[in-house]
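Honest question from a wet-lab person: if I give you the sequences of every part of a complex, can you actually get the arrangement of the whole thing, not just the pieces? Trying it with mine:
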Amino acid sequence: EVQLVESGGGLVQPGGSLRLSCAASGFTFSTSWMSWVRQAPGKGLEWVANIKQDGSEKYYVDSVKGRFTISRDNAKNSLYLQMNSLRAEDTAVFYCAKLGYSGFDLVNWGRGTMVTVSS
Amino acid sequence: DIVMTQSPLSLPVTPGEPASISCRSSQSLLNRNGYNYLDWYLQKPGQSPLLLIYLGSRRASGVPDRFSGSGSGTDFTLKISRVEAEDFGVYYCMQALQVPLTFGGGTKVEIK
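Yes, you can. This is the full assembly:
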C-alpha cells in the first residue's frame, strides 16, 4: 500500500524558513515523479512543484519560484520542500503526492502538514 | 497558464439521484496523442483529495463505475449516476497537460 507521510509544518514568522519532508513507502520511490500541492484554509487546491525521478527536472508555480526548492533523496525514500522568505499567503496545508498514470496525475496523496506564517 | 473553470459552485443533490459537474479549460487539453489530459478529484471533509478520473474518462483504481468522465478539448463533464452518502464533498478538475498544473475552483456536492 502506498503511504506518504508529511512532516515539518508549523508556525513561522514572515520572512522565515521551513523544510517539509515526505516519507514514502509501499512503492518504488525512485521511479516516480513527485509533487507538492497546497491548500490555504477554506480555499481550493494549488499545485506547488514537481520533481522528476532522478531530480534532474523541477517545476514550480510562479508564486514560489526563487523561494521554494523541491528535492528528493531516493536512498531515503524521501521528498522535501525547502521554503524560504515565507509570506502570510503561504499559509496552507501542504500535501505530498505521487504522480502516475498518464504522467502528471496526482495518484496518491499524503494527509498533509500545516504551515502557518504569522507574526 | 491554463485557467480551469468549474460550474456550478454548489450542487445540492438528493441521495440516489444523478449529479453532473462541468469543467472548462482556457486552452485545449487534447494532446497530439489523442488523449485529453483532464483529471477529476474528490475531497471529502477533513480528508486529502482522491483521484477519480484521469485522461478525461478513465477511472482510477478502485473508483466505482457510477463515476464517469466525458468531454474533449476544452469542455468536460463528471457524472455520478446515483449519488451515495460517501460521494458528498468538493470535486475539483485539474489539467494535467502542462506545468503549472492548474485546478478548477471546486464544486461542493452537498445533501439536498
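Two things worth pointing out. DSSP finds no helices and eleven strands in chain A. The first strand of chain A starts at residue 3 and ends at 7.
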